[in-house]
Write a structure and sequence with these properties.
Elements: H1 2-28, H2 39-56, H3 58-69, H4 88-98, H5 101-114, H6 120-196
Helix pairs in contact: 1-2, 2-3
Length: 197
């Protein structure tokens, strides 16, 4: 009996030491490995390191004070027992207020359980296609850049065609029409002068 008690004590101390090392690693970023020492000395060193941790991190000290003053806050009540702080009318109101959400939650959970799990082979095939899809995406991006460049060049060509050819032809047509009008005026004057003579 005493052997199991000693084993339990030693395992409890080693578990406490492991927890303290994890806490120290989380807070300080490093852990110091302790050499194998007798249990009493190990407990004293653990208590000393825990005290240092409480001094360095104020939140832990405040939590420990809160735990010492209100230990029931850190103990979960049994699920079968209702919370002792609330009267039964308040509990009933809480349950009745949440009652309409029970069928919707049950339906959602049923829908999740009814959803088939995809075939692992298909998932693996999709995962194998990921590098190819990334390559295709890079190709699409390059094509988008090339399309934008071609659009800019096409716009420049159309503008040049419009400014040179279309506007040039319009200028030519306007000049020809102006000459034709002048020639018509001259012809009309000559014809009028012949009729008058």
């Amino acid at each position: 009996m005493e052997t199991t008690l000693d084993n339990t004590t030693l395992s409890t101390i080693s578990l406490l030491e492991a927890r303290l090392l994890r806490l120290e690693h989380l807070v300080c970023g490093h852990t110091a490995q302790l050499p194998k020492v007798p249990a009493m000395r190990s407990i004293q060193e653990l208590e000393h390191r825990f005290g240092l941790l409480l001094q360095r991190v104020r939140v832990y000290a405040e939590l420990l004070k809160l735990y010492k003053s209100q230990p029931t806050l850190f103990q979960a009540p049994q699920p079968s027992e209702p919370p002792s702080e609330l009267p039964s009318d308040a509990l009933r109101a809480i349950v009745l207020a949440a009652a309409p959400s029970f069928p919707a939650t049950a339906s959602a959970l049923t829908a999740i359980s009814d959803t088939p799990v995809p075939d692992p082979a298909q998932s693996a095939a999709l995962a194998a296609l990921l590098p190819r899809m990334k390559g295709i995406e890079a190709t699409q991006l390059a094509q988008a850049v090339e399309i934008a460049e071609l659009r800019t060049r096409s716009e420049a060509v159309i503008r040049q065609w419009y400014e040179r050819d279309v506007l040039g032809y319009s200028d030519f047509a306007a000049a020809a029409e102006s000459r034709v009008e002048r020639v018509e005026r001259v012809v009309k004057r000559v014809e009028k002068a012949r009729r008058e003579v």
